[in-house]
Amino acid sequence: MPPPSDIVKVAIEWPGANAHKHFLSAFVSSWSLSGSEQFALRYADGPQLYITEQSRGDIKNGTILRLAISPARAARQLLERIQSHGIDARLEALKELAKLSADPTFAAEFINMEGIGTLARLVESGTHFGEMLAFTLTAFLELMDHGIVSWDLISLSFIKQIAGYVNQPMVDVSILQRSLAILESMVLNSHSLYHRVAQEITVGQLIGHLQVSNQEIQTYAIALINALFLKAPEDRRQVGALNVCLYPQEMASSLAQKHLRSIILNHVIRGNRPIKAEMAHQLYVLQVLTFNLLEERMMTKMDPNDQAQRDIIFELRRIAFDGENDPTGTEKRKAMYTKDYKMLGFTNHVNPAMDFTQTPPGMLALDNMLYLAKVHQDTYIRIVLENSSREDKHECPFGRCAIELTRMLCEILQVGELPNEGCNDYHPMFFTHDRAWEEFFCVCIQLLNKTWKEMRATAEDFNKVMQVVREQITRALAMKPSSIDQLKTKLRGLNYSEILRLRQSERMSQDDFQSPPIIELRERIQPEILELIKQQRLNRLCEGSCFRKLGNRRRQEKFWFCRLSLNHKVLHYGDLDESPQGEVPFELLSDKIPVSDIKSVVTGKDCPHMKEKSALKQNKEVLELAFSVLYDPDETLNFVAPNKYEYCIWTDGLCALLGREMGSDLTRSDLDTLISMEMKLRLLDLENITIPEAPPPVPKEPSSYNFTYNYS
């Protein structure tokens, strides 16, 4: 009779005692310990968290637990020890506290005993240095991260002390790292603390920490800059490429903006190879927050009656048409303006200001157009004139394209959106130029004009062109160009013909289409391919494989060989003195298991030899290659494959023997590859022929069958 599902078998250890299998009170009595309420169970491996009523349901069969003093007792003892006079004893207590503080059960007990206030006073006293201070800050941060205590309770003297560690020119790396993390948490979790931290820490001081070689310090420094930037009031943010100044007077000059950008580029992006995931995320956050400075202009509608705004449109007209003299008459001037605005590609020829009343992109589109006209004047004039002089209906409307392109770029770069958690999609090229956004627009508008000509598009094809341009831009950004010039190179290789080729290639790799006839064909082919894969797996099992024996003495390697009989009815296996060079005869394999006796195949943590307490338990690579055959009567044959390929071959083959589904990554890959090849072969004669979504309708029955031939 199988045991109930809510009962698991575990091993419990106590330092200096043998393992037992009893209730907690039985452990305490058998080990001559008094007061079961003074003890608790913790995991022996990993984070070593306490077992609670809420978490005991997560315990798995074969888990190793450790008997430890209860969380309340541990908190009380540590609180006394960290206030002791002995330096060594205090250091050991703080070290243990830093480790235990990650446990929510212990943290709740320690906080209830006013432990956080004690740690804060130790920091404020300024008497802790080196390792002792590092462990104190680590414990403080871990305890606060549980969210039990509000950050608003932190005193100003504590903030000043932490800020002092950040502002010191020479401070221990571990102390600096934890101080930056604490300040970041203060800013993100408390509006009132933001103002206090911003008074103590300047972005200029944080820039210094970006110039060090330690990537973790750089990451925490950028994270604090991002936090200050994210929580800064709207009136304290400045518009500018990668200008993350919180107080305008601090970094108002373009020189300071350029300095920050160049530091990030040279010391963070180019100075770290490779860039770790957390650093990449912080750079992505900084990129998004920087582009969010454009949101105000993006959401600002143009006022058709605002003369200053209308003057910008007049300036665009003047630059494009070389400041031609305006006619004297009002009607003639109005007619000329209408003609010029039409050649500029605006939708509303009479009053182009109306084109900028939709948000997004609002006034941001006009800003982009003016930057192109002034900074890249030759390019601007060329685009406008070569399209305004065409009479074949293939002219590219510059104004309409610029407005729609700005909206598209805002969507691609998430302008106005908060950063996504876990996203690392930053682009190095935006850190290489003081006006990266505007330069990006200038490159893309030239791409749009070029693609329009390659497609020989007309006004009716506007949306199709924009779809192609979006694909060109997103594909180029996915290549992570390191500069604006490299972006231009990538885009030159992604012309319209290349986009068509890529689309065709991707359609073919996705079994061409998703129409019902193709899906039906795939379903008919799949069983044949699965049977082919199954036979290949079984043939490989018949050839056999060599496995390594892993015991307590891993330095003395032993080998054993296993293979399937040719009739697929018996597994033969046996020990070998050394790794074989070829196939091992059945006669040398002394042991065997009838396939009919095999009950199941288990993998990974479910394997009996992976549940044992050994060095293997901590080896993730070995864990991923382990599998076991369970057979009658309650016996197991344990495997550790030499590599992932052999693991997939054997687990698939054994599942096929048992009539179960082959679910390895290798099977999925082989299935996709073989089906794709077979589909392409069968559809070869239908290339460039549109396959209908549904079969043709059956014609109606004829009114009579007099047309049939009468053989009589």
Task: Please give a structural write-up.
Helix content is 51%, strand content 8%. The strands form 3 sheets. A 4-stranded antiparallel β-sheet has the order 4-5-6-7. Strands 1-3-2 form a 3-stranded mixed β-sheet. It has a 3-stranded antiparallel β-sheet with strand order 8-9-10. The protein is α+β, with helices and mostly antiparallel strands and 712 residues long. The protein folds into 4 domains: 1-69, Roll (Ubiquitin-like (UB roll)); 73-234 and 244-291, Leucine-rich Repeat Variant, CATH 1.25.10.10; 299-507, no CATH class; 526-670, Roll (PH-domain like), CATH 2.30.29. Helix 20 packs across helix 21 (462-478).
Quote the average pLDDT.
84
Instruction: Give the overall shape.
Output: flat
H/I helix tally: 28
**Biggest sheet features:** 4 strands, antiparallel
> Briefly, what CATH class of the largest domain?
Mainly Alpha
**Any idea what the CATH superfamily of the largest domain is called?**
Leucine-rich Repeat Variant
Helical content stands at 40-55%
Instruction: Work out the radius of gyration.
Output: 36 Å
Throw out a few tags for this protein.
single chain, 712 residues, alpha+beta, Ubiquitin-like (UB roll), Leucine-rich Repeat Variant, four-stranded antiparallel beta sheet, three-stranded mixed beta sheet, 28 helices, 51% helix
Helices and strands in order:
Elements: E1 11-13, H1 24-30, E2 39-43, E3 64-69, H2 71-81, H3 87-100, H4 104-112, H5 115-125, H6 130-144, H7 156-167, H8 173-189, H9 191-200, H10 203-209, H11 215-231, H12 254-269, H13 277-291, H14 295-298, H15 307-320, H16 330-343, H17 363-375, H18 377-388, H19 398-412, H20 436-454, H21 462-478, H22 484-492, H23 496-509, H24 516-543, E4 545-549, E5 558-564, E6 570-576, E7 591-594, E8 598-603, H25 608-611, H26 620-624, E9 626-631, E10 635-640, H27 644-657, H28 665-682
Parallel strand pairs: 1-3
Antiparallel strand pairs: 2-3, 4-5, 5-6, 6-7, 8-9, 9-10
Helix pairs in contact: 2-3, 2-4, 3-6, 5-6, 5-7, 6-8, 7-8, 8-9, 8-11, 10-11, 11-13, 15-17, 17-18, 17-19, 17-20, 19-20, 19-21, 20-21, 20-22, 24-27, 24-28
